[in-house]
Amino acid sequence: MRKTNIQPWTNDWEKAYEREQQLLKEILKDELVDIFHIGSTSVPAIGYAKPIIDILIVVKEIEKVDRYNEALRKVGYEPKGENGIAGRRYFPKGKENRTHHVHIFQAGNEHIQTHLDFKMYLTAHPEDAKAYGELKLKLARKFPEDHHMYQEGKQEFVNELVERAGSWGASR
Q1: Whole-number Å distance between alpha carbons of 70 and 18
Q2: What is the edge-to-edge ordering of all strands in the sheet holding 32-38?
Q3: Nearest Cα to 162, choosing from 55, 54, 39, 78?
């Protein structure tokens, strides 16, 4: 069972994203439309996060991503297919000590805007971001050896944030 590892926010996460972004752009260059740093490591106001860089990649055709599985495997990514989200390709890096999660969607997929709205909302609403970070820290202390309970404990709050972020994004 994976442990819950929450760390104070650091600018090193942005640097780690920038390094990985260059690598991924080079591999996926023929299919790539856009690439974004998402998730808690991309929002300083959250204050705390798992030290895993979430990367959102937008491609021209999702089916063609499978052609890059071997190239991505060579740089440490594990192809997981859709992994529970239709229309996505998911690639974690780092096995049990994960360092990156890559989420790839085809241009136009609704999940792209959901992820971007979530990040932009938390950036624009630092009080909500801080509350989210504090919840993460509290749950990590409560469930240090049970990542599933940590995830379950924050899900209702995350769902509320996603709903607020979607409404906020739609009104802009």
Answers
A1: 22
A2: 32-38, 53-59, 100-106, 88-93
A3: 39
Query: Which two structure tokens, joined as six digits, stand for 119?
Result: 């990040």
The two tokens of residue 97 are 């000590």
* Token output for 120: 């932009």
2 within domain boundaries: no
For residue 167, the surrounding DSSP H or E stretch is: helix 147-171
Q: Are 37 and 6 in contact (CB under 8 A)?
A: no
- Is residue 115 situated within a structural domain? yes
What pLDDT digit, counting tens, does each position of 103-134 carry?
999 999 999 999 999 999 999 999 999 999 99
Question: Would strands 88-93 and 100-106 be described as parallel, antiparallel, or unpaired?
Answer: antiparallel
CATH number at residue 85: 3.30.460.10
In a domain? residue 150: yes
**Distance in angstroms (rounded) separating the CA atoms of residues 85 and 11:** 30
Nearest of 154, 121, 137, 96 to residue 38 by alpha carbon: 121
